[in-house]
Specification:
Blueprint lengths: L14 H18 L15 H31 L3 H10 L6 H17 L6 H35 L4 H4 L21 H16 L4 H17 L5 H24 L4 E3 L5 E3 L5 H13 L1
Antiparallel strand pairs: 1-2
Length: 284
C-alpha cells in the first residue's frame, strides 16, 4: 500500500499509523533523553581559564559594539538607497525559524509514520540515520531559538525605531515586541542553522555562514535590531548549536566522542542508499 492510498476519505491517518507515529516518537525521545553510559568517553572542554577569558572577550566585544556602533548604525542605514533597504526587507524573512523547522519536522513525522517492523534491516538503518540527522538539525535550531524568544522579552531592550537612536533604553520584563531587540531571533536561527547543517554537510558551510552573515546584516538594515543584538545572537546561536551537538555526541547519535575528547560526525547513508529507501517506501 502506498502512502497516498493509506489515507482515508476524510484525509485523516488510519489509527494504526497514528499509533505507529506515537510509538516511534516516544522511542525517539527516550533515546534522545537517555543517560550516557558512565564508562563512555567524555568531551574535553577547554581549561577554565580559557573559558573565562573567552567570556570576558565576548562581553567586551558586545559592549564595545553597543558603545561604538549601535547609535551610528541608524544614521548610516538611513542614508542607504530605498531599493537596497527594500531588498533586505525581503531577504530578512528568510531568517525565520519556520523555514527550517517546518520542513525538517514534517520529514521527521513522515519517517516515523513510514518506519514499520516489516521493512528490511538496511531500510531501518538508513531511516534511523536520517532521523538522527534531521532531529539534530531541528533541535540545534529550535533550542537556542526558544531560549532567545523568552530571554529577549525579559531583557526588554528597545528596538531602534522605539528608542530614538539611544541604544541604552531598556524596559525589563515588559513582554512587548517593541522591547524585544536583544538578542535577534532571526540571527540566532541563522547562526544555529549554519552550525547544525555544516556539522553534517561540510560542503555547505561556506554557503550557510554567508547566509547567516546576510541575515544578521539584514536585521540591522531594516532597523529591527542594533548591531550588538546580532553579535549576541551569533554567540548564542553558535554556542547553542554546539551544546546540542555535544548532547547528541554523548549518546552516540550522529556524532561520537573521540579518544582525545573531541567530537566528530559518524558516517551517514549515501545518496544511493537514500534513493533506494525512497523507492522502496513509495512502492510499498
Amino acid at each position: 500500500m502506498s502512502a497516498a492510498s493509506g489515507l482515508g476519505g476524510s484525509g485523516a491517518l488510519p489509527v494504526s499509523r497514528l499509533r505507529r507515529l506515537r510509538a516511534n516518537m516516544i522511542a525517539s525521545f527516550a533515546t534522545l533523553l537517555r543517560t550516557p553510559r558512565p564508562s563512555g568517553r567524555r568531551i574535553a572542554w577547554p581549561p577554565q581559564r580559557r573559558l573565562v577569558l573567552g567570556a570576558v572577550i565576548a562581553v567586551v566585544v558586545v559592549f564595545a559594539t553597543m558603545w561604538l556602533l549601535d547609535a551610528r548604525s541608524l544614521t548610516s542605514v538611513r542614508q542607504l538607497p530605498p531599493n537596497v533597504v527594500a531588498a533586505f526587507e525581503r531577504i530578512t524573512d528568510f531568517g525565520l525559524a519556520g523555514w527550517f523547522l517546518w520542513p525538517v519536522g514534517l520529514l521527521l513525522i513522515a519517517l516515523a509514520i513510514a518506519d514499520t517492523a516489516i521493512l528490511p534491516r538496511f531500510v531501518h538503518g538508513v531511516m534511523a540515520a536520517l532521523a538522527v540527522r534531521l532531529g539534530f538539525v531541528f533541535a540545534a535550531i529550535a533550542v537556542p531559538g526558544l531560549l532567545v524568544a523568552i530571554v529577549k522579552r525579559l531583557i526588554g531592550r528597545a528596538r531602534p525605531p522605539v528608542d530614538n537612536e539611544s541604544p541604552w533604553n531598556y524596559q525589563l520584563f515588559v513582554w512587548r515586541p517593541e522591547y524585544a531587540s536583544l538578542p535577534s531571533g532571526h540571527a540566532t536561527t541563522a547562526f544555529a542553522a549554519a552550525i547544525a547543517i555544516g556539522a553534517f554537510w561540510p560542503r555547505l558551510r561556506i554557503v550557510m555562514w554567508a547566509y547567516a552573515a546576510v541575515i544578521a546584516l539584514s536585521r540591522v538594515i531594516v532597523t529591527a535590531h542594533h548591531p550588538s543584538d546580532v553579535v549576541v545572537s551569533a554567540i548564542v546561536g553558535t554556542l547553542g548549536a554546539v551544546l546540542v551537538r555535544n548532547w547528541f555526541a554523548a549518546r552516540r547519535l550522529g556524532f561520537v566522542v573521540t579518544p582525545e575528547g573531541g567530537v566528530r560526525r559518524l558516517p551517514g547513508p549515501s545518496f544511493r542508499r537514500i534513493k533506494a529507501v525512497a523507492r522502496r517506501l513509495l512502492s510499498a
